[in-house]
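Dear H.,

Thanks for agreeing to be a second pair of eyes. The structure we're designing against is below in token form, covering all 127 positions.
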């Protein structure tokens, strides 16, 4: 066992971290490069109402968090269940999987930014 395998408090350190602690005490800083977590980009299908679509057009955006499904079929099932009649396709750049709301047809996700572009993929009339 080497002398630098003993931590500053006198304990033996077989993992070699005593050297790091001693270096930090001596004024050296561990400068590891941390890479940002890649953002998940995906198209989600957002079920909504005609009234909300008019608000989206008036404001020019859908305010975050924007929830949606991975498939059109899943969004249609959710729309039927919740009484919504319009489904929009939206592009998300920072998507996160929801822990619930999934159904047999797809997974539920949310977008952590406002959405400013969408395409109507289903409605009783063009929304």
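And this is the sequence the design step returned. I haven't edited it by hand at all.
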């Amino acid at each position: 066992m080497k002398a630098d395998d003993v931590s500053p408090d006198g304990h033996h350190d077989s993992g070699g971290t005593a050297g790091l602690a001693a270096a930090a005490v001596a004024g050296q800083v561990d400068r590891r490069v941390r890479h940002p977590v890649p953002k998940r980009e995906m198209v989600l299908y957002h079920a909504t109402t005609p009234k909300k679509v008019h608000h989206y057009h008036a404001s020019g955006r859908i305010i975050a968090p924007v929830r949606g499904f991975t498939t059109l079929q899943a969004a249609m099932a959710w729309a039927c269940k919740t009484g919504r009649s319009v489904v929009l396709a939206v592009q998300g750049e920072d998507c996160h999987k929801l822990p619930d709301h999934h159904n047999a047809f797809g997974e539920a996700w949310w977008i952590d930014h406002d959405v400013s572009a969408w395409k109507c993929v289903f409605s009783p009339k063009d929304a």
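Two observations from my side: Residues 47 and 80 are 9 Å apart (CA to CA). Residues 1-34 form one domain.

Warmly,
E.
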